[in-house]
Design brief:
The complex is a heterotrimer of chains A (452), B (309) and C (434).
Chain A (H helix, E strand, L loop, with lengths): L1 H9 L9 E16 L4 E17 L3 E5 L6 H8 L7 E6 L3 H12 L7 H14 L6 H10 E4 L13 H11 L5 H14 L16 H13 L5 E5 L7 H18 L2 E6 L2 H7 L2 E6 L2 E7 H6 L4 H9 L45 H9 L8 E8 L2 E6 L2 H12 L5 H6 E7 L2 E6 L8 E4 L2 E3 L10
Parallel strand pairs in A: 3-7, 3-8, 5-6, 6-7
Antiparallel strand pairs in A: 1-2, 1-4, 8-9, 9-15, 10-11, 11-13, 12-13, 14-15
Helix pairs in contact in A: 3-4, 6-7, 6-8, 7-8, 8-9
Chain B lengths: L18 H17 L2 H18 L1 H4 L37 H37 L1 H15 L3 H12 L3 H28 L2 H9 L3 H38 L9 H12 L5 H28 L7
Chain C lengths: L1 H12 L3 E14 L2 E14 L3 E5 L6 H8 L8 E10 L2 E3 L16 E3 L21 E2 L5 H7 L4 E4 L3 H4 L6 H12 L1 H8 L6 H6 L6 H7 L2 H24 L5 H4 L9 H13 L5 E5 L7 H18 L2 E6 L2 H7 L2 E6 L2 E7 H6 L4 H9 L48 E4 L2 E3 L20
Parallel strand pairs in C: 3-10, 3-11, 8-9, 9-10
Antiparallel strand pairs in C: 1-2, 1-4, 4-7, 5-6, 11-12, 12-14, 13-14
Helix pairs in contact in C: 5-9, 5-11, 6-9, 9-11, 11-12
Classes of the chains: A alpha/beta (452), B mainly alpha (309), C alpha/beta (434).
Chain lengths: 452, 309, 434
């Protein structure tokens, strides 16, 4: 079957020599938490906290994760709709430039020599999107477009379809008058609409049609790259299928690159060449779609896949689920951020004082006498209680199987000092992405396939 | 037999549409929606009658010379009841013709409300827009100023200003303008902050449109409706407060203004001379009511939550 | 109408049916005419089963669900015809709802028909069980059923919970409305104590509250409060909320989406209802949380043998969760079947279309079987299959008359002239009780 052959060919991961459209390096976006009348900054929500990946010409990168993992924030940064607080997004790097950049960035900032600094500044001036000026900036703007989730909110209700789709052409003075109208008709036809829709308002269309209008607008400037932020989440399945087909056809015709942001694993599996799985602002796993789905290396990916209902699932097998809820992104867990919910957690995953506090929060009365935590650092602290009994009770509980075994093993010190309980856990640094296969990386202390 | 509304995408007629025609149709549709509410229509009719009266004042009465806005005094016919010959609605203590006052009072009220509302809408919209669109420090400073203004009761504030500046019609306009702009700034800022979050604003940024054009094309048109509704209602409210100030005596005496007339007539009410106060008072009531009815109708018809859906 | 009555009798006699919808029509007054949101649908819900109601936006599934509790806004809504008969149970006397042998562990037993005292009469269709038409009973009776015999879980727990009340307040409300006697019994207070009874049914006035704060009466009040707290904590514990006593004092905004949905479930199941209506209960949740909530609903349902009407747009979820599935399209039933049958042998072209449109393991990129066109507007629709115009297998008959529901195999029926032709074989007959 030629169809199959085509499809599998298209899915082959592009080689490193291919040109890149977007390269994200160490991207951070922290939102300050402000409090009180003076709007004092009391903390940072680390929505995106050190993310790196590449998008090559003509490929689809799927960005998946649950709500609050930072995927939408990341998409907004890539589209230059919000300014990152750290790291950078580079547009249109060649493979050599990318390698050069990575080499330069690998050197810590303090140890960079004069030549290195100059070389870096040169690359940044030409490619980093928040440093682009004049024509380079306009070039980026034209080549990077966005399709939003809410098709109603993304179209100005007072504008006619012709004005909406023709607006990019007007802004760049590409066409006017009849020529503009004709270009708009052409674009509408490409997305399955037509001339009869020119003079209508967005509210006269169905959700799927409105999303087509959004896509037509995104295509108007003939971009290289489109950020698709949950483009089908608000649509019914039958309409979703139409839009997914359309996106695929357009990609084939125009060699578009997509950043496909979604929480729907079935959709991303269908659409993406490569997948980046995010959890709490960091990349948990990244790799080719088949590798991610067939051999997930990160337990979080495994949990996502297990929880995703599919028409081909085995109905007798219970849905595997995750305990607990996503921790506060203002105080992300140490080590691996997933260790608080991980089903295969080890002592090396970053057990910390906050784990004890979190554990206490879910306990019955008797433990709620915690009056304070005197932290030395994330891994060592004195827990102060109002009475001695609670201290003894907690100390015993932390030695019993009321807490995960891995947590007990990671405990280096546990002493009762009057009304204080001194705890110290093994010190662990943040878990980095490590290679797991061709173009496949995961941030997990374990190696080897996940136990089923 | 199959109804066109069912399932099959109906066959489109040949496209003879133009943007202008579609926009006209939409305007007509909105007008139709406004006019579908009987109370709005009643309000509109009253307003139209009032406006006609104000505009035709020089035709239906003989303007007083030299200043038609001054009440003519007929010292030979003081305290005449209504239906007296030559004084259909009677005269005041000072021989002022009540009918003349009612008709020219409409003109005064129209002046007053148009002046105050147009000044305050422009000022309020600009300040609210700056605060809402630019945000940050601008927002903080401007909104604190607004808070200060809001913390003083409207009527007392206007009264104080007018009292300090001395009794004159111009000072009433000034006093009302200074107190009324605050509301618009508030409304506009809230609207802009809400509208700014819509994805179509981001979509315009992605296209690369300039901030100013985004403001004028995307933000302002989608924020202005509540301001317009408020302005309509204030057309009535301004006259109400203006009449109050005039009643207390902060306007020039002898001017053809409803509040002044009510004040002039009030002394006679206890002696049974009800007409000098009642007719101008009724006019103030009708004026304020009519604009409120229309304002309410506009709000329902142009509600941003239902509009366009 | 004789046929209707016969039909009515037929369904109510079936012993395990707790609710049956017959020819339900709910219309909405629109600018351009009547919108037939639900247009003559019939189905049964059996005791203890999970019935899935699947369809896309605007197919009428949520309106149908809301009709069970008479929550459709009228106007613009109009109950244009049909009935929803429901058999409310009552709390088992032997175990007072805890679950015993007598009531098969469910805590609920059949209620006697008030017309005949259980002997069987015309009202109850001869079953002797209380049978009510949810669309015609008085408001007071409806209120007594809501949250008590029929409960509902909404899609967005953030919106369905009152942001100004603590979790304790929201759940105790259900008990105060429907379980006054139990509260008093648990508190060890005589049911004749007027003040406390009024407190335990949320009827206390301000001066009564003041009275109850006076020392001699206070202990009684405190006992009632403590009993209520225990009941609330138990309800929360059922949904596996860790540390329910702590969660009770929180406000909804302090809880995560999954926790909020648990609170909603606790509230819905507090009175051990006969029928739980779950309107897209996990759509607003993340997949990992969704899986847990689904498991929870299933587990609680099996324990209490509650019937569940599960509304969803997601076929792959329905396949996991439901015993039987009903596919709706444009206000009509397209197909009903057991889950297994539906996914093994989808019959109606719309069902097939839905299944084909799901991006899954087998589909090739860019070649998803999308259904062309859009859902028809339902303004005064003519007699015709609603799927006309989008259907790949359409024949002339489709746009002339309504296709009847025809049984293809036991439990499996579809409304399609092509794939379930009426009267094709002697064995196939129009089914009334799918």
């Amino acid at each position: 079957m030629t169809m199959t052959a085509d499809a599998s060919l298209a899915r082959q991961p592009a080689t490193a020599a291919d040109d890149l459209v977007v390269s994200v390096r160490g991207l951070e976006k922290h939102f300050p938490i402000k409090e009180g009348a003076l709007q004092r900054v009391v903390g940072q929500v680390r929505a995106v906290d050190g993310v790196s990946f590449d998008i090559r010409r003509g490929e689809t990168v799927g960005l998946v994760g649950e709500s609050g993992c930072g995927k939408t924030t990341l998409g907004r940064c890539v589209a230059a709709l919000s300014d990152p607080t750290g790291g950078g997004i580079y547009f249109g790097l060649s493979a050599q430039h990318r390698d050069r950049l990575d080499a330069l960035l690998a050197v810590p900032e303090a140890r960079r020599g004069e030549a290195e600094r100059r070389a870096l500044a040169e690359i940044e001036a030409a490619h980093r999107i928040d440093r682009l000026q004049g024509n380079a900036w306009r070039n980026f703007r034209r080549n990077c477009q966005v399709v939003f989730q809410d098709s109603f909110a993304s179209l100005n209700p007072r504008h006619l379809v012709k004005d909406i789709v023709g607006r990019p052409l007007e802004v760049y003075r590409e066409a006017s008058g009849t020529a503009l109208t004709e270009r708009v008709v052409e674009l509408l036809e490409q997305v399955g609409l037509g001339r009869q829709h020119l003079y209508r308002y967005p509210h006269q269309f169905s959700g799927g049609q409105r999303q087509r209008i959004s896509i037509a607008r995104a295509l108007a400037l003939n971009p290289e790259f489109i950020v698709l932020d949950e483009p089908t989440s608000a649509l019914d399945v039958s309409v979703q299928a139409q839009i997914l087909n359309l996106l695929h056809d357009l990609q084939q015709q125009r060699n578009l690159a997509y950043l496909f942001i979604t929480h729907n694993l079935s959709v991303v599996r269908h659409m993406a060449d490569r997948i980046v799985v995010m959890y709490l602002g960091r990349v948990a796993e990244a790799g080719p779609t088949e590798a991610i789905f067939d051999r997930p290396e990160h337990p979080y990916t495994g949990a996502l896949l297990a929880a995703n209902p599919d028409l081909t699932d085995d109905l007798d097998g219970a849905m595997r689920t995750l305990e607990g809820s996503v921790p506060d992104p203002a105080r992300p867990p140490q080590g691996c951020r997933f260790h608080t919910r991980c089903p295969v957690v080890t002592p090396a995953c970053g057990w910390e004082v906050d784990d004890v506090v979190r554990w206490l929060a879910d306990r019955e009365a008797g433990f709620d006498r915690l009056s304070g935590v005197e932290r030395k650092d994330a891994f060592e602290a004195d827990l102060v209680f109002e009475d001695d009994a609670a201290v003894a009770k907690l100390s015993a509980a932390l030695r019993s199987d009321a807490v995960p075994m891995a947590m007990r093993e990671a405990t280096e010190a546990l002493e009762v000092r009057g009304r204080k309980l001194h705890v110290r856990f093994r010190r662990v640094s943040e878990v980095e992405l490590t290679p797991r296969g061709p173009h496949h990386e995961a941030a997990c202390v374990r190696s080897g396939p996940l136990p089923v | 037999m199959v109804d066109a509304s069912l399932s099959r995408p109906p066959v489109r007629r040949a496209p003879v549409e133009t943007a202008a025609r579609v926009r006209l149709r939409r305007t007509l549709e909105l007008t139709g929606r406004v006019l579908s509410d009987p109370t709005t229509v009643i309000g509109l009719v009253i307003i139209i009658l009032m406006l006609a009266m104000a505009l035709l004042a020089p035709v239906i009465t003989t303007p007083n010379v030299p200043d038609p806005y001054q009440m003519p005094r007929d010292w030979g016919a003081v305290r005449m009841p209504p239906l007296t010959e030559g004084h259909l609605l009677g005269t005041t203590n000072n021989g002022g013709d009540v009918l003349y006052g009612v008709i020219w009072g409409a003109r005064t009220s129209l002046y007053l409300s148009l002046l105050v509302v147009s000044i305050t809408v422009v000022v309020g919209t600009i300040i609210g827009s700056i605060a809402g669109f630019l945000g940050g420090r601008f927002d903080n400073v401007l909104m604190r100023i607004v808070d200060v203004f809001l913390s003083i009761p409207e009527l007392i504030f206007a009264l104080a200003i007018a009292a300090v500046l001395g009794p004159s019609f111009a000072n009433i306009v000034l006093a009302l303008a200074v107190t009324f702009w605050v509301k618009y700034a508030r409304i506009m800022r809230a609207q802009i902050i809400r509208v700014k979050q819509n994805d179509y604003v981001d979509a315009a940024r992605v296209i690369g449109d300039s901030k100013l054009r985004i403001y004028f094309k995307d933000i302002l048109p989608n924020s202005i409706t509540p301001v317009m509704v408020q302005a309509t209602m204030d057309m009535g409210h301004v006259v109400l407060v203006g009449a109050t100030l005039a009643f207390i005596g902060l306007s020039e005496a002898g001017i053809a203004e409803w509040g002044v007339l009510v004040s002039e007539g009030q002394a006679g009410i206890s002696s049974g001379r009800w007409w000098a106060s009642t007719f101008p008072g009724l006019m103030v009531f009708l004026w304020a009511l009519a604009f409120n009815l229309v304002g309410d109708g506009l709000r329902d018809a142009l509600d941003p939550r239902t509009e366009g859906r | 109408m004789l046929t209707n009555l016969e039909e009515h009798d037929a369904i109510v006699r079936a012993p395990d049916v707790i609710a049956s919808v017959r020819d339900l029509k709910i219309h909405f007054r629109g600018k351009r005419g009547m919108v037939h949101a639900v247009d003559g649908i019939s189905f049964d819900i059996r005791d203890g089963e999970t019935l899935g109601l699947v369809g896309e936006t605007g197919c009428g599934k949520s309106v149908t669900a809301r009709a069970f509790l008479r929550l459709v806004q009228t106007p613009p809504g109009v109950y244009a015809g049909g009935s929803i008969t429901f058999r409310p149970r009552r709390v088992c006397d032997d175990c007072s709802g805890v679950g015993c042998r007598e009531c098969d562990g469910t805590g609920r037993v059949a209620a006697h028909c008030p017309a005949c005292g259980g002997k069987g009469c015309r009202t109850c269709g001869g079953t002797g069980e209380e049978t009510v038409d949810l669309l015609s009973i008085p408001d007071a009776q409806m209120r007594a059923l809501r949250g008590n015999r029929i409960a509902m879980i909404f899609q967005d727990p953030g919106k369905a919970l009152n942001p100004g009340l603590t979790v304790r307040d929201q759940i105790s409300e259900v008990f105060l409305q429907h379980r006054t006697a139990e509260i008093l019994a648990a508190a060890g207070v005589s049911p004749n104590d007027v003040l406390l009874r009024r407190q335990a049914s949320q009827k206390s006035r301000a001066f009564e509250k003041m009275l109850l704060a006076v020392p001699p009466l206070r202990s009684g009040r405190n006992r009632v409060d403590a009993a209520l707290d225990t009941m609330v904590a138990d309800a929360l514990a059922q949904t596996q909320i860790p540390n329910p006593r702590k969660v009770m004092d929180r406000y909804p905004h302090e809880l995560s989406g999954g926790m909020r949905q648990r609170v909603m479930i606790a509230q819905a199941l507090a009175c051990n209802p006969d029928l739980l209506i779950a309107d897209e209960p996990t759509t607003a949740l993340d997949v990992t949380v969704q899986a847990r909530i689904l498991e929870l609903i299933r587990e609680l349902q099996q324990r209490h043998k509650t019937a569940v009407l599960y509304i969803s747009h997601d076929l792959s979820l329905v396949r996991r969760v439901c015993d039987r599935v009903m596919v709706m399209y444009a206000g009509r039933v397209a197909e009903t079947a057991t889950s297994q049958q539906l996914f093994r042998r989808p019959t109606h072209p719309y069902t097939r279309g839905l299944l084909g449109a799901l991006p899954g393991r087998g589909a090739h990129r860019g070649r998803l079987a999308a259904i062309d066109g859009t859902v028809p507007e339902l303004v005064d629709p003519p007699a015709a299959c609603r799927f006309v115009g989008r259907c790949p297998d359409e024949v002339a008959a489709c746009s002339r008359t309504d296709p009847p529901m025809v049984e293809i195999e036991p439990e499996h029926a579809a409304a399609c002239f092509v794939h379930a032709p009426p009267g094709k074989a002697a064995a196939t007959r129009p089914v009334r009780t799918p």
